[in-house]
C-alpha cells in the first residue's frame, strides 16, 4: 500500500469512532432519510440490483440501500469504518457484504451499479478509480456536495456561519482532525469537487457522456431539519449527482 493510502486509512480508522455523530455524515431525520431514499431509488436500477458502494465508510448509503432490498457490497480502505458499518447492519438484521481494499483497484465485480458519496476528493488518482469502476459495474452514480473551497466565497461564508453557531452550541467538530496540507496537495479533487470538474472527469473516462442532477429534494429536507432559524437562514450546501452508464 502507498504512503498516501496509509495516511488516508489511518485518518479514517480514527475518525470511525465519531464519524456518525455528525448529522451531515449520518442523517437521522425521517424526512431527510425519505428524501435520500427517493433519490437513490430514482438514480439506481430497481432492487434487488447488486450495488457496489465504494468508500462506503460507516454505511450511510449501503444501509439505506440494503433497507430497500438492494444486494450491497460495501468497499472501503478503512477497517475501522467498515467495522462500524457491519455493526449497524447487524443491529438492523440487514445483509451487507463488507470488503476492505483500495477503490482505485477494487477486487470485486459484477455489479449493476456503483455508487459513492464524498470519496472522490480523497483519492490520489480519481480518474484511474473511475476507470476501474467501469470494469466492476454498469451504471455510475456519484453523490457529491459543493462545499468548502470548491463552492467559492458563498460556501466559505455559509461554512463559517454554521461553524460559529456550532461553537456557540458547544457542538463537536465533524472530524477528529483535518488532512495535512501535504496530504491534500496530493489529492487532485480536494477542495475542487465541482460539478464541472466531475462531469469532465467522468467524460474523459470510458464511462462517456455524463448526466448532472441537482439534489434539490435532499437539500430541502436537510434544511428543514436544521436546529435553528439562523441555521435555516444560512441554508445548506448544494448537493448533486453525476450519473453515467
Ligand atoms: C468522507 S468519508 C465518506 C463515507 C461514506 N461514503 C459517507 O457518505 O458517509 C470517505 C470514505 O472513503 C474511504 N476511502 C478513502 N480513500 C479510499 C480508497 N482509496 N479506497 C477505498 N476507500 C477509501 C475512507 O476510509 C472513508 O470511509
Please describe what this structure looks like.
The chain is α/β, with parallel strands linked by helices and 245 residues long. The chain has one domain (3-244): Vaccinia Virus protein VP39 (Rossmann fold, 3-Layer(aba) Sandwich). It is built from ten helices and seven strands. The chain has helices spanning 3-15, 30-43, 60-67, 79-92, 126-136, 152-168, 181-184, 195-203, 216-224, 229-234, and strands spanning 50-54, 71-76, 96-100, 111-117, 137-145, 210-214, 239-244. The protein has a seven-stranded mixed beta sheet with strand order 3-2-1-4-5-7-6, with helices on both faces. Helix 2 (30-43) runs antiparallel to helix 9. Bound molecules: S-adenosylmethionine.
Give the topology, please:
Elements: H1 3-15, H2 30-43, E1 50-54, H3 60-67, E2 71-76, H4 79-92, E3 96-100, E4 111-117, H5 126-136, E5 137-145, H6 152-168, H7 181-184, H8 195-203, E6 210-214, H9 216-224, H10 229-234, E7 239-244
Parallel strand pairs: 1-2, 1-4, 2-3, 4-5
Antiparallel strand pairs: 5-7, 6-7
This protein binds S-adenosylmethionine (SAM).
Mean pLDDT: 95
**Annotated CATH architecture:** 3-Layer(aba) Sandwich
Question: How many independent structural domains?
Answer: 1
Helix-strand category: alpha/beta
The best one-word shape is globular
Largest sheet: 7 strands, mixed
Q: Are there runs of 5+ residues with pLDDT below 50, and where?
A: none
Number of strands: 7
Helical residues, percent: 40-55%
Could you state the order of secondary-structure elements as H and E? HHEHEHEEHEHHHEHHE
Strand line-up across the major sheet: 3-2-1-4-5-7-6
What is the CATH third-level topology name? Rossmann fold
- Give the CATH H-level superfamily: Vaccinia Virus protein VP39
- Rounded Rg: 17 Å
Question: What's the N-to-C terminus distance?
Answer: 30 Å
- Measured by DSSP, the beta-strand proportion falls in 15-25%
How many individual helices? 10
Bound ligands, each once? S-adenosylmethionine
Report the top-level CATH class: Alpha Beta
